[in-house]
Amino acid sequence: MRRVVQHTGIVDGTVDARAYQLEAVDEALTSSMLLVLPTAAGKTAVAWMVIAEMLNKNNGWVLFIAPTNPLVDQHVRDLKRVIKDINEVNVISMTGGTPPRKRKDLWGSSRIIVATPHVVRNDVKNGILDLKNCSCLIIDEAHHSTGNHAMARTAELYNSDAKKPLILAMTASPGSKKELVAEICERLKIERIHIRNAKEPMLEEYLAGLEIQEIIVNVPEKIRELVKPLELWINGIVNQQRRMGRYVRPGPPSFGGLKEAQMRSQSAISLGDTRAYSSVSQIATAMTLNHLINHLLTQGITAAREFLDNSNDSNNMSKSLKMFHKDPRILELKQSLDEMDEIHTKVGTVRRLIRHRLRRDPNSKIIVFASFRNTVESLDTALDDLNDVKSIQVIGQSDRAGKKGLKPKQQIEVLDKFREGEYNVLVATSVAEEGLDIPSADLVIFYEPVGSEIRTIQRRGRTGRHREGEVMVLVAESTKDETAKKSAERKEENMQRAVHRIRRKLPRKAHEDLSNLINFKVKMGEKESTAANFILRIREENRPEITKIDGNEVVNEKKKVNSLEPSNFRPRGQKGLEEFGKKDE
Question: Which residue from 134, 265, 333, 501 has the fewest beta carbons nearer than 10 Å?
Answer without folding.
Answer: 501
